[in-house]
Every structure is written in C-alpha cells, then in structure tokens.
From TrEMBL:
Pathway: Carbohydrate degradation; glycolysis; D-glyceraldehyde 3-phosphate from glycerone phosphate: step 1/1; Carbohydrate biosynthesis; gluconeogenesis. Its EC number is 5.3.1.1. Gene3D superfamilies: Aldolase class I. PROSITE patterns: TIM_1, TIM_2. It comes from Drosophila albomicans (Fruit fly). This is Triosephosphate isomerase. GO terms for biological process: gluconeogenesis; glyceraldehyde-3-phosphate biosynthetic process; glycerol catabolic process; glycolytic process. Homodimer. NCBIfam families: tim (TIGR00419). CDD domains: TIM. Keywords: Gluconeogenesis, Glycolysis, Isomerase. GO terms for molecular function: triose-phosphate isomerase activity. InterPro entries: Aldolase_TIM, TIM_sf, TrioseP_Isoase_bac/euk, Triosephosphate_isomerase, Triosephosphate_isomerase_AS. The gene is LOC117576696.
Length: 311
C-alpha cells in the first residue's frame, strides 16, 4: 500500500500523527530548501561574501609564520581636539583590514579623548610611562594610569626619548618590565643612528638594545618590537625593503640565540621610519616585517592605506 493512500485499518491517532509528521517535515524541508539557497547565494555569490563567510569561522589574520600584522600610529606631540576628531572620523569611516591590528599612540593629555572617539577595534597607546605605579614623580604617568583610562598599550624606548630625554637602555627596559607586569602591551623601540650605521655597527647597536630588554622581559607575548633606524625617522629617507628586512632577519637570529626559537618565531617586529602609503606595500611584502610604527603619515588620511598595505 502506498503511503499516500492511508490504511483504513490504521488507528486514527496514528493517522493524525503521520499527517502531522509529514506537514512538519515538508514545512521544514520546504523552508530549508527555500532559505538555504538564499543564504548560500548571499554568502557565496561575491568574493566579499566568501571572505565574510570564512572570517566567521577561521581567520586569525596571521601571516605564514603565524604573526598578525600590527600597525601603530605614533602621533608624537601633535594634534589638538579638532584634528584628533577628524583623524578618528577618517578611521571610523574607512574599511580597515580586519587582519591588521591597529594601535594609536596619542599624546597623554588626549588619550582618553582619542579612546572615546576611535573605533573599539583600534587600540590606544601611551607614548611613554614611568617604571613605578605612583608616587612623587612630577610630570610622569604610570602604566596603571594608562590602563585606568582605557589605553592598552605603551610605546617605550622611542629614539626621541633616548636622544632628547637621555633615556638609557636600562631605564627603558625597567619601564617595559613594569608596564608588562601591569598588564599593558608594549611597543619596544630600537634602532641605530646614521653614524652607527655608517660605522658598520647596526647589528651591535640593536643587539645591545635588545639585550637590555631581554634582561627584564620574561614573557614576550605582549611585546611588539619596533625597529626604527634613527636616520629614517621623520627624514623622508625610508630604509629600503631589503635594508629593513636584513635587520629584521638579524633580530630573529639574535632572538633564537639569546631568547628562544619560539619567541623568534612569534614576536612581531615592526619597521618604522618615514613609512608612507607609497612605500608601505613593498615593505609589507618582506617576510620578517610584521607591521609598521608610523609617525608623520599616521596624522594623515593615508594612514588608512598603510593599515591596508597587505591587501
Ligand atoms: P616617521 O616617524 O614615520 O615620521 O618617520 C616614525 C616614528 O618615529 O615612530
């Protein structure tokens, strides 16, 4: 007997149950077949759709070595409420590569203001912080204070702090140690002067600076190193991609020999020094360059193109 011609001897309760089952299953299958192609089409028809679809499941945005690209904007002592609001609007309106981590180093007095205006996906960094939590240190700010107002990063050891404010390798390393202990992430800057490069001392200088950090840092998870040749900072003279790659590769080797293979593989090393939208793409192709620390260009709309350099 076919299913469509009900068995007259069947119990009416079973008949009702069968009818209910078939209605439910047809409704479900019907709905499923009607809805699924729509879902399928909207997710798969366009490349953007495919990217979004997969982004929900997988992506960590890491490169082949498992390091997520990280771009920092270092505003230095620049900006006012009006210009910061404009930059924040540009960044909020732009489509930023979701595979790039972005951090803005604002002047201390505007950190909270910038935090409130920037998209949540963008981290905020102090440009300096002292090595203790509080006390009689007129003019200083502490990592605890940065955390308190919503900053999650601090830039330490920038060459301007080293050269103008005479910060030593040791002091910078102590600051990094304390900032990490307080739960901040640290952009730890290093880099040689022109004189040091011309004397052939680049590797020795960056090794010395790294050594000071390594004496104080036990866990490198929350550290990003920014290699910034001093001769390239604010001068318009970028290191060529090969020059930068050479030092980055040396730093990885140094890390293997002095810290560990695991840290060498996982630590992100940014390049900084006159990075612009025009040179970012080529620099970003180098295997050991995991991002940028950007000064002047981070105050301009082209910062968006630098963030998206790997697209
Ligand atoms: P610059 O600065 O991009 O203006 O050269 C970089 C930096 O100092 O971090």
């Amino acid at each position: 007997m076919s299913k469509s011609s009900p068995d007259n001897n069947q119990n009416p309760k079973d008949l009702a149950l069968d009818a209910l089952k078939s209605v439910v299953s047809e409704a479900f299958v019907g709905k499923f077949t009607a809805v699924f192609p729509k879902l399928f089409k909207c997710q798969w028809k366009t490349y953007e759709g495919q990217k979004k679809f997969f982004a929900n499941f997988s992506d960590t945005g890491c490169n082949m070595a498992g390091r997520k690209f990280c771009v920092g904007g270092n505003w230095k002592m620049n900006g006012d409420q009006k210009s910061i609001a404009e930059i924040a609007k540009t960044l909020s309106d732009a489509t930023l590569d979701p595979n790039t981590e972005v951090v803005i180093g604002a002047p201390a007095i505007y950190l909270m203001y910038a935090r409130n205006l920037l998209p949540c996906s963008i981290g905020v960094a102090g440009q300096n912080a002292y090595k203790v939590a509080k006390g009689a240190f007129t003019g200083e700010i502490s990592p605890a204070m940065l955390k308190d107002i919503g900053a999650d990063w601090v830039i330490l050891g920038h060459s301007e702090r080293r050269a103008i404010f005479k910060e030593s390798d040791e002091l910078i390393a102590e600051k990094a140690e304390h900032a990490l202990a307080e739960g901040l992430k640290v952009i730890a800057c290093i880099g040689e002067t022109l004189e040091e490069r011309e004397a052939g001392n680049t590797n020795d200088v960056v090794a010395r600076q790294m050594c000071a950090y390594a004496k104080k840092i036990r866990d490198w998870t929350n550290v990003v190193v920014a290699y910034e040749p001093v001769w390239a900072i604010g001068t318009g003279k970028t290191a060529t991609p090969d020059q930068a790659q050479e030092v980055h590769a040396y730093l990885r080797k140094w890390l293997v020999e002095n810290v560990s293979q695991a840290v060498s593989d996982s630590l992100r090393i940014q390049y900084g020094g006159s990075v612009t939208a025009a040179n970012a793409k080529e620099l970003a192709k180098k295997p050991d360059i995991d991002g940028f620390l950007v000064g002047g260009a981070s105050l301009k709309p082209e910062f968006v193109d630098i963030i998206n350099a790997r697209q």
